[in-house]
Amino acid sequence: MNRETADGAQGEISDDENSTLQGSNGQQIVKKQRPVNLQLNTISFPPAAISSILHRVTGVALFFALIFVIWAWAVSVSSAEGFDMVVECMNGVLGKLIAIGTVSAFIYHLLGGLRHMVMDMGHWEEMQSGNNSARIIIGLWIVLTVLVGVVVW
Amino acid sequence: MVINQASLKRDGVQDWVSLRATAVIITFFSLYMVWFFVSTPQVTFEIWQGLFSALWMKVFTFATLVCIMIHVRIGLWQVLSDYVKNARLRVLLQYLMNLLAFAYVLVGLFVLWGV
Q1: Is residue A70 domain-shared with residue A106, that is, in the same domain?
Q2: Closest C-alpha among A100, A74, A40 to residue B107
Q3: Are B62 and B109 in contact (CB under 8 A)?
Q4: Residues A45, A8 contacting (CB under 8 angstroms)
Q5: pLDDT by residue for chain B (115 residues), tens digit each?
Q6: What total number of domains does chain B contain?
Q7: What phi and psi values does residue B2 have, to the nearest 5 degrees?
Q8: Count of CB contacts below 8 A, A vs B?
Q9: How far, in Å, CA of A127 to CA of A84, rounded?
Q10: Does the keyword Heme feature in the UniProt annotation (chain B) (predicted)?
Q11: pLDDT at A99 over 90
């Protein structure tokens, strides 16, 4: 019997692995041998789990990216020399990479947040719809990141 | 029955609402900035500074920074409490990160003051 658990881990259970005990009142107690699979690299995460971890990773990344964003904003808005300096930084390879990375992380975090809000309204809460919405936002994120990458570069 | 709540208590409902309410404001600010960059053919220093010298934009920017501080206060707490099991390290990281979030707000305040 092939079972898929809620976290997507695949496990094999055959019926003869289930041991049957006799209870004190004569009833049968079936003790199921649940699959134990803690080898993380063998577990295939479902899209919803990947979506969740990406939301966290991009959130923390954005928090630190704000150091660059707020620095660039503060310097560029304060003086004309500062503005020119930031423009020069943004034209460099490192500046472009940081900009694309920050915008990309923001796009994902925003899409993930919108998905959360739809779920708050009571939609996309089933296994199938939840995984589909996760696939869609991950796909949309990749497309938008490529688009932003082309425009910024 | 009298309930005396004399301590600083965490409130899950308040966190839930705050996270979303602040997210909406941050989203609107970001969309406005995207629109600004898309609709402005050549962003010069005069246009850029002019944008942030308007009072409503100062208010919008500062409100967004405060929202970011509230948003990351909840979000980083969620992440840290899941992955950093050592209480001392977690509290230290939380303290430093909240301080950084507060610094973002202060930088924003003083920069907007001078524009």
Answers
A1: yes
A2: A74
A3: yes
A4: yes
A5: 666 665 666 788 999 999 999 999 999 999 999 999 999 999 999 999 999 999 999 999 999 999 999 999 999 999 999 999 999 999 999 999 999 999 999 999 999 999 8
A6: 1
A7: -110, 125
A8: 46
A9: 51
A10: yes
A11: yes
Dig out the tokens for A50 from the structure: 């990947």
In a domain, B4, yes or no: no
Note the ipTM here. 0.90
B71 is in an annotated binding site: yes
Strand partners, A10: A4
- Sequence-distant (6+) residues with CB within 8 A of A126 are none
So what's the pLDDT on residue A42? 74
- Interface check for B57 against chain A (CB to CB < 8 A): the answer is no
**B67 interfacial to chain A (CB closer than 8 Å):** no
- Tell me whether residues B107 and A106 touch, CB distance under 8 A: no
- What residues form DSSP beta bridges with A28? A22
B104 is in an annotated binding site: no
Q: Which amino acid is at B65?
A: L
Nearest to B114 among A70, A78, A113 (CB): A78
Per-residue pLDDT of A22-56, as tens digits, reads 666 777 777 777 777 667 677 788 999 999 999 99
Supply the CATH number for residue A117's domain.
1.20.1300.10
Tokens (6 digits) for B102: 């507060």
Owning domain of residue A93: 47-152
Residues A51, A38 share a domain: no
The total number of structural domains that make up chain A: 2
Distance between CA atoms of B92 and B105, rounded to whole angstroms? 20
| Shortest Cα distance, chain B CAs vs residue A152, angstroms | 12
